[in-house]
Amino acid sequence: MAQPNPVAALSNIRNTPELWQKITFTLLCLVVYRVGSHVTAPGVDVTAMLNFFQSQGGGLLGLYDLFVGGNLSRSTIFALGIMPYISASIFMQIGAAVIPSLEKKQKDEEGRKQITQWTRYFTVVLAAVQGWGYALFTSSVTGAVINPGTGFMLTMVLFLTTGALFVMWLGEQITERGLGNGASLLIFFSIVERFIPSIFQMFGFVSTGAVSLLALLAMTAMMLAVVAGVVAITLAARRIAIQIPQRTMARGRQQESTKSFIPLRINTAGVMPIIFAQSLIVVPGAAAQFSGSQTLANIADYLAPGTWLYFLLSAGLIIFFTYFYTSIIFNPADLSENLKKQGGFIPGVKPGAKTAEYIGSVIERITLPGAIFLTVIALLPIWLADLFAVPFTFGGTSLLIVVGVALDTMAQVNNHLLLRKYDGFMKKGRVRFRGRNAGTGF
Fold it and tell me: Would you state the pLDDT for residue 165?
């Protein structure tokens, strides 16, 4: 089979007006997001904030700062980034899994529009609360606030809430008029733009002798292997064979049932279990920092990255949240019902409840290797840092996000190109469908 030509693919993108417009619009939105990332919120000393974040290292604030592209540590108007909208979306998603009325609304178009509007309102509330919390946090950092007080607090809440809503609007515009999921692309862009300085920093460590060349080569090889593993697991799926009756006529005869499959992803939960687990582990440290409690500080020391308790608790929480989040976002009963409505069935399994039970059992089995994989990805950077004594670590969380968003965006580009190609054939009347499932996933 002929291998794809990257130059030809780029040429095809340029020659596809609709796709090129979507890509251009997306890039312009990312440029606007990047420009806003350099506008500092009023009344904050950026140098003091940067020094504080450098002294604290990782933790919950470091994870949040990673997702917003360093805007939190630089105290810009986009300090909250897209995270309030992401949090609101997750809360609504969890709510739909436990509240029947919300679950019912998700199944029709008008209900989904109403839930989207509620998500926006909830984003405003979360942004205001987080903005107030960030104002309190900056006031607690020595020398970070020029004129502390109620006026500064209200101003900070206004600017950060407005910035978060603008970023939310920017993400929605990318989703509707650009390419890919806007919220995911903004996080992707925020993470990637910090990769390049980290790479140069690593080469600086080698030039100064802080890191040996052999350690750099070994770590690079391991990183490439991890990237390959992330790609493989992200794309990996368990295929369940199904049969769907063909309802069209071919040469005056009714066609037989077509064989297809349902792909069940091994890593259905994505990166969310790692985020939930890390958010819980850093709670004692964050609470100790704000309250000054020595007891909480001692607990935070026991849970510091690199301790045996940290590894055990992280592994347990990631595995738990993998099963928990998978059960929320994937409903075997709905899949079984949709399959039944299409007249499809799994060979050897009765339609309805038995099909849902069978799909649920498959999901339970394939979720375990996915959970173990997420655990290794989350803890591997710490192991590598201890093994090679390297001050720079790459995050497994960020790597999962980058690979997942990149693969999804590339798939959308490929779909646009395929649709454009099929349109050209159809205008010439030369369409030839090959295979049993031409143009569909089933």
Answer: 94
